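Hi all, long-time lurker, first post. I run a small reading group and we've been trying to get comfortable going from sequence to structure in the token notation. Rather than ask abstract questions, I figured I'd post a concrete chain and ask someone more experienced to write out its structure so we can walk through it together at our next meeting. Sequence below, copied exactly:
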Amino acid sequence: MIGEILAEVRKDHGDTQESLAKKLHVTVSAVRTWEQEKSSPSQEMLVTICQLYNVSADYLLGLSNVDPSYVQQRRLTRFSDQELDEIKLFEEFLLWKKNKA
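-- Answer (accepted) --
Happy to help. Here is the structure in token form:
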């Protein structure tokens, strides 16, 4: 299951197998075999991938169907920088309002 999820996460971040291989200092063949489920990354490599893409190991390994932080991250990519600034201002306003009550 890691292969399918790894490929999805990699593509969501705009990486090719080649660019991911460069980032991880491994061969393209290694990334390809992980995604084809012919082999699995080492534990150390798994940690590195999780840190690189900010996903949980449970999600990457298929032990959890959802990684809330990754879902949130994906949702935020739909907004422009200006819209993200407005969201932050609105959040600050709501927190201020909550503290006033």
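A couple of things your group might point at:
Helices lie at 2-12, 17-24, 28-35, 43-53, 57-60, 68-76, 81-100.
The longest helix spans residues 81-100.
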